[in-house]
Write a structure and sequence with these properties.
mainly alpha, Arc Repressor Mutant, subunit A, 175 residues
């Protein structure tokens, strides 16, 4: 089999980037139409439903977001009566998040968030494949001179606050 030429690969890369943006945009709009929630809010309630009750820090880890970013998402979900936050009686610094009955009902009627599909797919990849994607997207941000841009959440105007360590241990972290 003959390898594709550079111009064919560039065209296919651009088409694939367009497809990703198209799917993410369409799913975010669908989630908002069907639920009135942003993509990140739908993603949060789905993660809470699957793993909850959760510490805020553990929810942030599972969503690959900064805890302060997740806090803003949770504020809006709490105002809508979809989640409750409870302080631990053993350690007052620890806050657990769980869905309300309305939150569980919303999960049942919500489409899957694009972010959730992306995370699930990336986590399932072989480390070599994941490394290839990481390197390719890292290079793309360099080409676009976008390394310094704060990353906005998919389906939202909110920015994910920086996490300079970028270490994502699986061990629960106290807040």
């Amino acid at each position: 089999m003959v390898a594709p030429t550079a111009d064919i690969m560039v065209a296919e890369i651009l088409d694939n980037i367009r497809r990703v943006f198209q799917v993410v945009n369409e799913q975010s709009k669908q989630a908002e139409r069907e639920t009135g929630l942003t993509g990140p809010q739908v993603w949060a309630i789905k993660v809470i439903e699957k793993h909850g009750p959760l510490r805020v820090s553990d929810l942030a880890r599972l969503m690959y977001l900064h805890p302060a970013t997740v806090g803003g998402i949770l504020d809006r979900l709490e105002m809508r009566g979809l989640i409750v936050r409870n302080r631990s009686t053993e350690d007052r610094r620890v806050v657990e998040v769980n869905l309300t009955d309305d939150g569980r009902s919303m999960v049942a009627h919500s489409p899957e968030a694009a972010s959730n599909r992306i995370v699930r797919g990336l986590e399932a990849l072989h480390p070599d494949e994941l490394s290839t994607i990481h390197q390719g997207l890292d290079r793309l941000t360099l080409i676009l001179d976008a390394r310094g841009l704060p990353p906005k959440l998919i389906g939202s105007t909110k920015v994910n606050l920086p996490n300079t360590a970028r270490t994502r241990s699986k061990a629960p972290v106290k807040e």
